Fold:
Amino acid sequence: MKILSWNVNGIRACATKGLVAWMVASEADIICLQETKAKPEQLDRSLLEVPGYRAFWHSAERPGYSGVVTYTRTEPRHVEYGLGDGWEDREGRAIRTDFADFTLFNIYFPNGQRDQERLDYKLAFYDHLLETAEALRRDGYRLVICGDYNTAHKEIDLANPKENSDRSGFLPVERAWLDKLVRHGYVDTFRAFNPAPEQYTWWTYRFGARRRNIGWRIDYHFVSEDLRPYLRGATIHPEITGSDHCPVGLELAF
Structure:
């Protein structure tokens, strides 16, 4: 089982840079895209009918903003949009798809950089997700939670940690939530295989950051501990361009 996740920073723009060809060539079982910035009715058939996949879209009410889509070769047993009861997801940030062996969340987590109100919204989103995930685990579900988390966890996960210690995306309170996620029994799959530094998934478009590899690792596949025995690999693909993020991959064997 191969799962890919990518914040495409606008699916229409990324499509002009070879997105569909990359999807088909990847031979992934599931592809999760975030920050699509489009509603399905705005897209042409090449994105709506990618060969071999069925697509599930969740778009923001606000035009040109946020949005996620999950492409899958296997028909899900169940699909939900948003984070479940108690969270009205008008920003199109989450899709849940249930399969035989696991439940997958494809999530575009909020960015807290604008102001304190948005930071509070981001932290509330984090907490509601964890409540939802834990309720599912109590009911016997095994979880994969992928997407753009908009937070670098450890100092190893960004190029300039000291300079960014007071910036949303690396604030102590945001990093503490990722610590809490780990304490609750979720595995950062990439770090389960690769402890090396300078492994990033996002680079600003400014200052030649990508060429110089001055980036942040903010895109993840976390899995519940009961999926650890099925992990076979986790990857980052900086060679794939088309967005300010790059794809991240997960392989599971059941």
